[in-house]
Amino acid sequence: MERRNITIREEQDKWIRENHINLSSLVRECIDNRMESGLAD
Organism's domain of life (predicted)? Predict the structure, then answer.
């Protein structure tokens, strides 16, 4: 598995922490959805 760094805004960080979101899972799911739909941007 490849590791990458991303930058998020402070309010995004707060929301992620408050909602106990696994950021890695969220990003992987978003990428998978875009790959399936053929969206590149």
Answer: Archaea
